[in-house]
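MODEL INPUT / OUTPUT PAIR
PAIR INDEX: 1
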Amino acid sequence: MHLNVRLHDRDLARHQRQCTHLEPRACSMTATDGNCCACADQRPRTQSGFYATYIDGRGWVEQATRWAGYCPNCQLAFNNFATVLRRFSMEKRIRQRTRRWLQSSEQANRVHIAQTHNHNHDSNHKTIPTSSTNRGRANLITSEKACDHWQARDCSMTNNPKYCCSCLDKRPNAPSYAQYVDGIGWVMGAVRWAYYCLGCRNHHELTDRQPHEPRRQTRPRGLQRMKGALRLHGSRLRPETLQIMT
């Protein structure tokens, strides 16, 4: 009699609810002593987060999730939790990257302000090194002395001191320069002042235009043949006649 009571109490305790996840997850396991699949899982945690699990139709899978062998309801609960966790991790990484970007931008702005402040107090001129190619806009040079062409050419450059585009252009001389053409890319064949302002460009187009050479006067072929024939036959003509013919 005493033994039967003990067996009955053990079976009753086995089917009682042991964890708080059994009802919310609607766990369908009946051999877990009242625990859900996760609470009944006694496998040690792995560092990689993957486990070897037997899946029907596939066999033993080495890199499976911990809940791959759980009941369908517990699998659904953990899949939803994993989705939320990945989304939270992604948002956290985005916030961290944004914070680092803002910090680097703020630091770059502070460095730029400090360099500008030091540059304004520096009286020596500073030349920006020219590139090995003639591509792009003119390189700039700042100095204390202004040029004499800025006002005469109506240059629209607003740098201080005033320099025209030609004086600011420190590219090496070349027969032609690179120019960007939409749909083609960088092509050679542009003039040096292609990127100058309108006033400087008009000035160079007027002054650098080569004057036309005078047209060479040629004698008509018929007159040359007639004169050669007269000389060949030894005809004596007066100088006035020869002057009129020539």
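PAIR INDEX: 2
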Amino acid sequence: MEIESEALEDIELGIHFINDTLEKIEKLLEKTVSLLEDIKSNTT
């Protein structure tokens, strides 16, 4: 049971890491979209 507990903790840490990474990607995409919209509005 001890091994299972450690494995579950590792999985939980991995999930948190993935969630953090996805949040960073989402923020980056939002900034990219915002920049593209600014460029588009400046060229029209």
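PAIR 2 NOTE: Residues 2-43 form the longest helix (42 residues).
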